[in-house]
């Protein structure tokens, strides 16, 4: 059925597009490619009425030919179905090189076949220069601009990027190199950024070697990030796995992340820009992650948190060879808050720190920040955690005159490495309590006996999303 529909559609396209890329959209060739992907299924928040393959628009999957135009044309063509059951663009088996492209249609799915690899161009000219994000300080001068994300979508409702573990390879090496040599005029592209959108699903993909952060949902709501494998060299910084940024109702589950930076970094804007933008990240669920992050955190909160971070629930996390588990990073000038953070059931092996909080993360967008804008950090819970081969259990430093309060640790069992730090809990400007922790905590966190830290028992709406099986 799908096949027949494609032929009709292909004929229509030949008429539509004239002879451009004619050889690529011949029926026989399209039919052949589609036969190899003729049956597949995936789970998504919604299935779509209309489909097209990248090959219908002149796509060539040889790993060398640029498919930038094919992606842009396909997406432009499919936009007409936005209010008629929606559409999906299928990326068939092959290696599809492309420059940056935008998802411009609501009710849209980008589907990658399991043997599809989208290769991000390494040519800076393939990335338009766009303004910096408003909550980070932007548009005032050139250095506040950035290269557009590789896959970018803004002002959309119901957008899905999924595959049966197909691959998007950011091919970041030249970007990392130029960045370290300070040869770039603008910020490096994120791999996938979805902005000002509602109902977003990014799932069942392998993401490799992003030039910068991998998955960046920003100013969005109802965001699902599920079953991703994210891999970057552990030596490269800024390759954060997933960065929910000023987003509400987010669920991140079953992802495997190896990164030179944080596996997940929860953010909400930077200093005076984030304070003015006032858009928090809240109601975030993080579950069943595996993280390897030798230089950074499994879950970082901040350092850009000026719009506030609230109601984060992280559970059933495995960390291997990571710098810290849950890490709070902030500083005077940030303003905002980090509150109601709940983490439980972490299993960790080889950690530099387990718990880390710093109120002295001094990096600012410019000199315009207000040093009197102090962040509020309160109600932070960590429970049911085990870690082996740990160098230092907890390095907790609040801000002088702005203590972090209601900090709780319960049922925490830490086995130290052969060469541990002498001081295992170093606490300054923090207020809270502990219950059944070993090694024993600092005097600022007295042992309250058997009194477990709280973890919310209510269910968030993002947990009630129903998936449909879309078959073709
Ligand atoms: C995505 O991958 C997970 C883990 O392999 C699997 O359980 C789930 O069914 C997949 N979803 C699909 C194929 O849509
Ligand atoms: C997307 O589909 C829904 C459900 O059919 C429809 O209500 C909505 O108007 C569509 N969105 C757009 C932008 O057409
Ligand atoms: C994508 O959209 C952004 C903002 O809407 C725009 O600046 C950029 O040029 C677009 N990119 C492409 C490849 O059209
Ligand atoms: C341009 O931006 C940079 C970095 O934010 C800042 O240091 C510099 O002062 C700005 N220059 C002007 C003229 O605004
Ligand atoms: C996108 O949404 C934002 C926030 O609602 C709005 O300010 C902006 O104008 C919208 N952009 C477009 C291109 O519609
Ligand atoms: C997806 O592919 C990656 C990379 O090849 C692999 O490590 C991972 O196990 C695969 N995931 C699934 C669910 O098949
Ligand atoms: C323990 O951690 C150290 C680094 O602190 C590492 O070199 C060593 O391989 C780890 N040992 C085990 C058994 O994982
Ligand atoms: C303490 O944490 C461990 C590891 O998560 C768990 O197996 C155990 O049931 C917890 N004990 C209590 C009393 O909750
Ligand atoms: C404890 O933390 C304080 C404040 O961050 C720092 O100045 C001090 O050097 C730390 N002490 C140890 C033993 O790590």
From TrEMBL:
Gene3D superfamilies: Single-stranded right-handed beta-helix, Pectin lyase-like
GO BP terms in the entry: carbohydrate metabolic process
Signal peptide: 1-27
Family according to the record: Belongs to the glycosyl hydrolase 28 family.
Molecular function as annotated in GO: polygalacturonase activity
One Pfam match: Glyco_hydro_28
The protein, known as: Polygalacturonase
Family annotation (SUPFAM superfamilies): Pectin lyase-like (SSF51126)
Keyword Ligase included in the entry's annotation: no
Keywords carried by this UniProt record: Glycosidase, Hydrolase, Signal
Lineage, uppermost ranks: Eukaryota, Viridiplantae, Streptophyta, Embryophyta, Tracheophyta
